[in-house]
Amino acid sequence: AAAGLAQDDFVGISFWIISMALMASTVFFLWETQGVTAKWKTSLVVSALVTFIAAVHYFYMRDVWVATGESPTVFRYIDWLLTVPLLMIEFYLILRAIGVASIGIFWRLLIGTLVMLIPGYLGESGYINIWVGFVIGMLGWFYILYEIFYGEAGKAAETQATPAVKYAYKAMCWIVTVGWAIYPIGYVAGYTGVGSSEALNIIYNFADLVNKVAFGLLIWYAATTESQAEP
Amino acid sequence: AAAGLAQDDFVGISFWIISMALMASTVFFLWETQGVTAKWKTSLVVSALVTFIAAVHYFYMRDVWVATGESPTVFRYIDWLLTVPLLMIEFYLILRAIGVASIGIFWRLLIGTLVMLIPGYLGESGYINIWVGFVIGMLGWFYILYEIFYGEAGKAAETQATPAVKYAYKAMCWIVTVGWAIYPIGYVAGYTGVGSSEALNIIYNFADLVNKVAFGLLIWYAATTESQAEP
Ligand SMILES: CC1=C(/C=C/C(C)=C/C=C/C(C)=C/C=O)C(C)(C)CCC1
Ligand SMILES: CC1=C(/C=C/C(C)=C/C=C/C(C)=C/C=O)C(C)(C)CCC1
Question: At the N or C end, where does chain A have fewer CB atoms within 10 A?
């Protein structure tokens, strides 16, 4: 694959940059567990799992793209099916770290994830109408937003969190709102008149960088801040 | 690729040596985090990320060179686009470790980096005139130099640093001045009359060794010195 990356294949270059950034992030999150208190270590390890799983998939996706110029749809959804639930576990863990989590929070977020991703996959691979898949997927996402803002999780974070946790929780919600919104934009950019698979992949790639790396950095920030406060 | 390295391919040999040195440096920096105080660990991890990302790219670059004899321009710039911002983060972290950093420092250094690298890439890959790219890139570098010597970062380091931090900061500035000057020399050596892609790659490779490994060693020196001072 190395010899095949053309200087003007900017989609391929974006796959390359992101696979490296994900790999480096994995090392970073794993090593930084050393500097945080016990309850935060798990959150950092889960961040590392997200970037690790994604890095491996990006290596494969990059090769598919460089070799064939086609969207590596199946690898993307395999990646998301693993990493989005891990991000939902992060919400659970951050609430558990302050002692207010119920496991029901995680199950509801998982159901929202499946309703978002499975129709998206069926739509993108042509099993169902592309826009039916899109609309059902959007409903899954809205359900996740409802749960983290106004559901049990949102309420727990609002009432009982320390400042660093509150900050991280709010920022995580913001990422799920604004950062995740990039994905449906990519979907639309891929399958409407002016769209192309180049646009789709560049947008999805950028979205993954934000939602995997920036999400993890937020948790790292809360973890290191809290850990330095407790001596 | 292993079988393909010829005894007289000194450029290929330099790719080989540096990929190994970068790999070994990565292991060194990661393991040495064990021996330093909490606030220095992150700086060492970031040094390791720089050498890790570079090591992976050197493996690919080496293979492209050995297989084709062509400059692996696209991989070099992908590497730089990731590692130079990480070096800029090092300036931020070393100032944060003494409690005097603002995030504005990092953003300004990042902008300088992009102004330096993007025109360089466009010039080397033929999208714009090779010397226009060069001149704009030089301006980006001068801006970085201004910021670290006379800007907010420079002032913070001068007034409030402990001796080990002051030493490290000064030495880091010195690397960005003298060590980084090797890159434009390589660029000129690659694209003027007497130049060749052999000269370009040997010079860039040597520059990467200085600027990635020596830079990390400096931070390691400050970190271990300071950590031994605090009991
Ligand atoms: C809403 C929506 C989508 C959203 C996908 C998202 C939000 C994926 C998130 C992935 C993440 C965050 C991965 C991180 O590791 C689809 C399926 C594209 C299409 C249907 C509508
Ligand atoms: C000034 C200048 C350049 C400088 C490049 C530099 C300074 C790269 C530094 C890379 C480093 C330090 C990597 C470390 O990991 C170019 C783009 C060659 C050409 C245009 C003029």
Answer: C
